[in-house]
Amino acid sequence: MIFYLDYAPAPVYGIIPTMSIKIKADALLLDVDGTLWDSTPIVAKAWTRAVRETGFGDMTVEPDTLKELFGKTMDEIAEALLPGASTEVREAAMDKCVLYEQEALERDPCDICYPGVIETIRELSLRLPVSIVSNCQSGYIELFMEKTGLTEKEIRDTSCFGDTGKGKTDNIRDLVKKRGYRNAYYVGDTEGDRVAVRQAGIGFIAADYGFGDPEEADRRLKSFDELKCLIR
Predict the structure, then answer these.
(1) Terminal Cα-to-Cα distance of the chain (whole angstroms)
(2) Do residues 211 and 34 make contact, with C-beta atoms less than 8 angstroms apart?
(3) Is 116 exposed, middle or buried (0-12, 13-18, 19+ CB in 10 A)?
């Protein structure tokens, strides 16, 4: 038997398998890094080149470092990555990081999506609006769409820190209000995602295969394509 609920409660173990409880959502909002793809090996090389050219000696930016930082706003990333630098130096370094990152991702085939991402988004977009909300820089979501072949037919709206100057909480709130969604869910992979989503007042689905470890969620995914069975 499959149970259908408008909002999935915390599971009662031994009684109802959680993946048997489908979520009735009127919109799905998605994170990018750690949820849809892992660009950190490509980006780490680009950022290493950028910070060295900006005067940080033989500093190396590791993919694992980026996994800890991605999900924050670009201002927060700059402060964490270059804590001893002045604001002006951090801004110059991050501008070059973004430039070299964009160039590297444009050159690379970017076969870096998690399994089933593109097919799942295409299928879900036939059932409900799918959007992307991220703390990334301007142009990053568009580059993701270009590399994956996804279009405005599949991704209804996009919103990011680089375009609005706002963090994830405010961007989620603005999008939900603009579209009049009443039962939207966000899929993300970090504790920062969870906090932002809870503050925005919508449902949260944790991508457990991603970079972080959100402490709680309405539902949890072992792989992205589980959304096809989870969302009705």
Answers:
(1) 15
(2) yes
(3) middle
Average pLDDT value for residue range 87-104: 95
Angle between helices 87-107 and 140-148 (to 10 degrees): 10
Phi, psi (5° rounding) for residue 204? -125, 130
| Cα distances (angstroms) measured from residue 74 to each of 59, 88, 122, 166 | 19, 14, 29, 11
Reported as a single tens digit per residue, the pLDDT across 110-153 is: 999 999 999 999 999 999 999 999 999 999 999 999 999 999 99
Report pLDDT for 128. Answer: 98
- Beta pairing class for 203-207 and 158-160: unpaired
Cβ-contact 171, 185 below 8 angstroms: no
Q: Are 69 and 77 in contact, with CB atoms under 8 Å apart? A: yes
- In three-state secondary structure terms, 80 is helix
Would you state the pLDDT for residue 3?
A: 36
**Chain center to CA of 20:** 25
